[in-house]
Amino acid sequence: MTAHRPSNVDDPQNLMEILRFFHYSIDVLKKMIIFPIHPRTRILIDSNQDLSAMMNKSGLFAIPAVSFIEMIGLEKYSDMVITDSGGVQKEAYFMEKPCLIMLEETPWVELVKSGNARLVGNNFDLLCEGTKHFMENKVIGFPQIFGDGRSAEFICEQIIKTIKNDI
Predict the structure, then answer these.
(1) Is residue 61 within 8 Å of 31, Cβ to Cβ?
(2) How confident is the model at residue 27 (pLDDT cuts 50, 70, 90)?
(3) Can you tell me the mean pLDDT for 62-78?
(4) What's the CA gap between 154 and 45, in Å, rounded?
(5) Considering only CA atoms, which of 1, 10, 16 is closest in space to residue 40?
(6) By C-alpha distance, which of 34, 38, 27 is closest to 61?
(7) In the chain, which end has fewer C-beta atoms inside a 10 angstrom radius, N or C?
(8) Cα–Cα distance between 54 and 19 in angstroms, integer?
(9) What distance lies between CA 54 and its chain's CA centroid?
């Protein structure tokens, strides 16, 4: 789970809704949450006693922000990804993980149209519904809507063919 957008973390009430969802996921759904905390999010949590108190929860692993490689590893071994990051949404798709997008809209509408992601904003009820949906519907197809991952190889082959034809 990641959160860094102003719409989610600059307003303490919005961040409280997300943290309330963490508690629900841990207590009711029996899921652990790994939360690499973005610096802007850490500042708000540290400056608000109520938010800080919500972070003290068994099953919630709040860790410092991670590198790209570390994030890919977290995504690869997760059951689901919950994020407000545009890049992480797409990474979740490549890792074949369902994704809850904590935004009102996404530039990657094809992820939502494929049924592998849901727009939930920072709404507690939508976060809960989306999580239940993906837990109950584990068989999800991830069609190659972004290609087969071999574009660099294809381009190199085409360059080599062109060079050979010109010789």
Answers:
(1) no
(2) very high
(3) 95
(4) 47
(5) 10
(6) 34
(7) C
(8) 6
(9) 21
Q: Where are the domains of the chain?
A: 6-139
Buried b (16+ CB within 10 A) or exposed e, 23-36: eebbeeeebebebb
Amino acid identity at 87: G
Would you say how long the chain is, in residues? Answer: 167
Q: Is domain 6-139 given the CATH code 3.40.50.970 in the classification?
A: no
- Enter the tokens of residue 114: 């494929």
DSSP sequence for 9-69: HTSHHHHHHHHHHHHHHHHTS---EEEEEPHHHHHHHHT-HHHHHHH--TTEEEEE---HH
Residue 141 predicted with pLDDT over 70: yes
Instruction: Report the pLDDT value the prediction gives residue 139, as an integer from 0 to 100.
Output: 58
Quote the pLDDT of residue 66. Answer: 96
For residue 145, is pLDDT > 80?
no
